[in-house]
Amino acid sequence: MVRRHQRRSAAILAAAAVLFTGLLAGCAAQQKSAGGGTAGVTDTTVKVGGVLTKTSASGYSTKDAEIGAKARFERANAEGGVNGRKIEFVGAEDDGQDAAKGDAAAKKLVQKDQVFALVPVHAPNFGGAAFLEQQGVPWFGWATGPQWCGTKTGFGYSGCLAPKKGAGSQTWWGSQMADLLGGASGKTVYVQTTDSSGSKYGGTTISQSFQAAGFKLVGLNSGLPAAAPPPDWLPYVNKIMTADGGKAPDVLVSIIAGTKFNVGLYSALKRAGYKGVLTDATSYDPAILKDPAIAQALEGVVAAPMFEPFESNAPEIAAFKADVEKVSPGATLTQHMAIGYWAADIFLDMLKKTGKDLTREKFLATGNGSYTYENAGFGRVEYPKDHSEPNGCGALVRLEGGAFRVAKSMKCFDNVPLK
User: Fold this and answer.
1) pTM for the full model?
2) Does the chain have fewer CB atoms within 10 Å around its N or its C terminus?
3) In whole angstroms, what is the distance from residue 50 CA to residue 335 CA?
4) Whole-angstrom distance, CA of residue 66 vs CA of residue 77
5) CA–CA separation, 128 vs 144, rounded Å?
6) H-helix or E-strand containing 124?
């Protein structure tokens, strides 16, 4: 009787094992058909996550890019997703403006969280580029450093902003400034960067942008430590104020990531009597207007965003504002928000053009196969060309009387070979 019971139990267990194995096989087959076994892809979802510099010693933060990306993904999901799949956004990791932490964050997202792609990546010292390229994982964001350029997986919303010698280099910033000032003939420019790799690369390309527009370069200083603002700005100010044969230059360009840096530099220059134009790529941030001291320090500064300004009447900007309001009611719009939003927008367009049969290989084949996308929000991107050069588009915004005003609307210019 006992043996009969044991035989019956064994038979039941064997049948259950066969059934369980069949179910696993069926699930595996279903997953394979959904995305060829690609991490982060199911029949109904595509999983993505980002890496940002949410915190740093200098106070610089790109955390708002997470809101921008989420806003764009939420709209896509509300419209039914992309090719039948909704975006599962797991949020963004903080690299603390440290390359090693950025590398660890990228590995966590890929190996543990199993994301399909990294969106948005907005970190000046991002250290995960080599890993993502080796793994064939797409990543989208603001390509401010050389780690983005020459890859097949990194897609900057404004192209590669640190091109190598001989590759195309942007002329739009210098050209827009020349138009704003009524021409560049006889005018001088000085460029200040930090000692970070991204900042130094930017100094080289932006210097050429102004030279291509007709300005005379009288100084390029990359000796400012990137870790934190200096206790004394006087040595840097003295160099600037005497750069043009003992005189101050007509235009001072700051290629520095961090409001504290620029506030310190600009305040010191104004105390020294500087009367020229101050311009940078990061001061277009309505949040700074909440602090009267910061707003005063940045009064008159001409910021150079690589997207259509929030003050624009373009339908794309109206959609951006509405999308952000839905996910973060009452939030102050920032350029980091816009960068996250437009990086996500390009990812979604590339995803749509790849089609239902989604793998990383097919996605990258789409992105690197004569991919072109135009949008009034950021201009245009063309890949694979923009893996090695910027998209050549941008606007100018001036802070006047405590409010930002469009100085020059977005426009795209032809690149020139970087010398």
Assistant:
1) 0.81
2) N
3) 17
4) 16
5) 14
6) none
